[in-house]
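Input structure tokens:
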């Protein structure tokens, strides 16, 4: 498993992870160079240095969450489910996550749940709507308000992630490559997402000196949403039911 999971008997929500988040899109061809560059400056995550991540994003039929991301809004919120492993490890459960962004800072509340039921053609088990509502209510009373009556599974995003973490845990880096997208209830086909590769840096404050020279590698900080790119790849930015 590429991501540490808490004790299955403890399903309490994890504290909100509130840090400054920086994103640096990059050509896939530079991933190997960037990996070596980061290896020389940060230790790999000691628990799970690499693995495959799969997320199911929820949105309205009008793609409101996508539009907010595409418009570059500074305040936004996303609801997603997340699994780890390739193939998916069903017995490890699913993470329910609410990710919020306000300006340069992002926060995430998440909780792990077991899943039951039949997997879809992609090997995932999507919870029923009543299950999802119950999970959100348990996550937090504020998060429960996120479940708009029209929200539905809209896009699956899968990618390979390499993780680094400073020894004091104040800086984390993740390099995501091989980004692919699929329709949650469509044919089991993963489509490559152009321009999906990205380096994500999270820190409590300013980046340490050894990470402040990313510009020399040709990387520039920019807005980047794998979900928005996936929607454009799957639906061309149109409402899914209009396709």
């Amino acid at each position: 498993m590429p991501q540490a999971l808490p004790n299955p008997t403890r399903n309490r929500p994890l504290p909100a992870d509130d840090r400054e988040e920086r994103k640096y899109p990059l050509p896939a061809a530079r991933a190997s160079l960037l990996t070596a560059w980061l290896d020389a400056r940060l230790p790999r995550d000691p628990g799970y240095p690499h693995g495959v991540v799969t997320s199911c994003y929820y949105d309205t039929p009008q793609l409101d969450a996508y539009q907010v991301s595409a418009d570059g809004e500074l305040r936004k919120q996303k609801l997603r489910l997340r699994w780890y492993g390739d193939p998916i490890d069903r017995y490890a459960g699913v993470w329910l996550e609410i990710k919020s962004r306000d300006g340069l800072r992002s926060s995430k509340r998440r909780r792990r749940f077991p899943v039951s039921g039949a997997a879809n053609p992609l090997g995932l088990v999507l919870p029923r709507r009543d299950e999802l509502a119950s999970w959100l209510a348990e996550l937090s009373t504020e998060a429960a308000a996120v479940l708009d009556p029209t929200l539905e599974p809209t896009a699956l995003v899968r990618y390979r992630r390499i993780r680094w973490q400073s020894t004091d845990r104040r800086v984390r880096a993740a390099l995501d490559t091989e980004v692919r997208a699929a329709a949650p209830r469509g044919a089991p086909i993963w489509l490559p997402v152009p321009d999906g590769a990205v380096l994500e840096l999270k820190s409590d404050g300013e980046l340490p000196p050894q990470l402040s020279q990313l510009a020399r590698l040709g990387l520039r900080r920019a807005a980047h949403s794998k979900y928005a790119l996936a929607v454009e790849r799957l639906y061309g930015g149109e409402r899914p039911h209009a396709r």
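The first helix runs from residue 31 to 39. Confidence is low (pLDDT under 50) at residues 1-14.
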